[in-house]
Design brief:
Two copies of one chain form a homodimer.
Chain A lengths: L3 E11 L7 H4 L5 E5 L4 H4 L2 H8 L4 E5 L8 H14 L3 E6 L1 H14 L6 H5 L11 E5 L11 E6 L4 E6 L7 E4 L9 H19 L7 H23 L4 H14 L13 H13 L3 H15 L1 H16 L5 H18 L16 H11 L4 E2 L5 E2 H10 L2
Parallel strand pairs in A: 1-8, 2-3, 2-4, 4-5, 5-8
Antiparallel strand pairs in A: 6-7, 9-10
Helix pairs in contact in A: 4-5, 7-8, 7-9, 7-11, 8-9, 10-11, 11-12, 11-13, 11-15, 12-13, 14-15
Amino acid sequence: MLNFELYNPTNLIFGKGQMEKLSSLVPAGSKILLAYGGGSIFKNGIYDQVMTNLKGFEIVEFGGIEPNPHYETLMKAVEIIRAEKIDFILAVGGGSVIDGVKFISAAVHFEGNPMDILQKRLLIKENALPFGTVLTLPATGSEMNSGSVVTIKATEEKLAFGGSAMFPKFSICDPTVIVSLPKRQIQNGVVDAYTHVLEQYLTYPHNALLQDRFAEGILQTLVEVGPEVVENPADYTLASNFMWCCTMALNGLIQKGVPSDWATHMIGHELTALYGIDHARTLAIIGPNLYRVMFETKKGKLAQYGKRIFNLEGTEDEIAEKAIEATVAFFHKMGMQTKLSDYTEGYENTASFIVNRFDDRGWKGLGENQLVTLEKVKDIVEMSY
Amino acid sequence: MLNFELYNPTNLIFGKGQMEKLSSLVPAGSKILLAYGGGSIFKNGIYDQVMTNLKGFEIVEFGGIEPNPHYETLMKAVEIIRAEKIDFILAVGGGSVIDGVKFISAAVHFEGNPMDILQKRLLIKENALPFGTVLTLPATGSEMNSGSVVTIKATEEKLAFGGSAMFPKFSICDPTVIVSLPKRQIQNGVVDAYTHVLEQYLTYPHNALLQDRFAEGILQTLVEVGPEVVENPADYTLASNFMWCCTMALNGLIQKGVPSDWATHMIGHELTALYGIDHARTLAIIGPNLYRVMFETKKGKLAQYGKRIFNLEGTEDEIAEKAIEATVAFFHKMGMQTKLSDYTEGYENTASFIVNRFDDRGWKGLGENQLVTLEKVKDIVEMSY
């Protein structure tokens, strides 16, 4: 087991009807920026619930945070906060709104060019504007972690940053919100959370026995509830376990003491930046091919995964191979298409484009042991066409 | 899944050699009460490590916190803190020292009679003196939770209390400390953690699928590493997984959204108060008999446990029965004796004594559904003779 530090001060408030606690969670007397996305909160009643529970607070609204939130959009919120002397942000939305609010929170008091937070991947440990969240779309775990991904539209870069000041003060997670989600977003949420676990689990066999069990517990639960929750989002057992899996997949816990990969995400982010493909769907395209290309280094863990999650039998190599196919089959069951050509035309130069971009950034090797070299990235992306 | 709030701000620092972070964790300029137990930290080198890493801090020592820490002892520390104007406490020890320090922390600024904290089970949400811990004995999870159990010697009562101000600011958990522990204490640690999980898991079938998987993950890991770690405490894989299981068994996570029992602990505490039997061993005495007496309400979950942890087969009733026997066998493998008569003579009136004491406290029924009535408590204790 690797050495680790576990610190997660987010107050997570989970369950039906928890919105009524909102007014006691926001610091008394705060002037609030209410940040949201494309306006679904007006249709599903969440906007009204929030406003009812924030009576008496002064509120400035900031809507229109897009999926894969844009630096350019978020900087407008930063200006408003500075001008209006706002002292608390409430993010009402999914991972994109929450990630966007993390950037806003970091940028408000940042001295220098806030673009450096992204391009230099700065660690934000202090001077952040406090914020809370109301989660409307389970997927990214952003409601209980200190990471964020923001896209710079001008340069078509999708970049990650974070730091201990980026934990939400609180997050309200009510599983009943998923009833109003489009099927596509529920499918995305399941595959996103599933891949988050795989990034932290499908590396090489190591001695963090308990962490493996926890990771497998999330995978097993997602396999059990994922396909069903898409069809029956009003079923509270399905909805609550789905939502809880998403949070636990990326709130930092299963990552403690273990190696992690994240190469699927690094490559997938480029597909979103280039073609606007949903984040989760890029993971379903890239992940299985990454496991194929990195088979020799990953087969030990692939076999453990195949045995424990899919009850596969055979030699280590056989189980490992079947485990990749079982993963693809699960993604298909979750409504994912798993080839780049299913989503876009004109993809022929994607591999070399991504390799060049990684090269420009000085990236030599990705993954748990930096063994996903740029050559391997090329193979993985070409295999994904 | 039941509604829940998850809030745990303890900064947990886990691994080999983490003690060197100590000086950066204690607030600069603090005057520290260094609290410890019977003096084992002088033999195993931890005292020296702590002092080396706290050079420059003003330190007042308070040793002699006993197992099942006494109110009477802890109040002496409270007097010292008040007289010496100490502003931080460092607990160096196992669950008893940490639990004791939680009480000290709560009592220093408490207005009124501090005994009320225990006897009225007050929730401590503020005005606590900040404290950190260096864990020397994995077992109770106290290093990452906000609960504590303290014994009032004068009345022979062992009483629990807690509250959100009772989380340690930090806990340093270095698995190599277990090398110097007596076998008996490692055995106790494994059984204590295992029973902590059972208290939160062996209730009735419910819909918190992921929480069950996490609980089972801890149980499986303890079954795998428990017997071995007693023999090979220097094996880092065994030591680190054992220690991490103990923390995760009772840091609040697996309890969120599920019913919990705790009747085994309530009864077990009385055996410790009466006969001084090690806490974990009281759990090994009482637990299996509680499952036998409460078989009808617990058999659904017992069967799930039997299938998933011990790969048992048969009808639900058969698996449930065998699961109890497998638990007893595991406790025996962990060096536990599982009858009261193995530990003491003159036990014949224990059941009625405990029942009378519970009755005096107004306790009518314990357990997840308050179905462990005083009659059932009597049966359980008598079955344990």
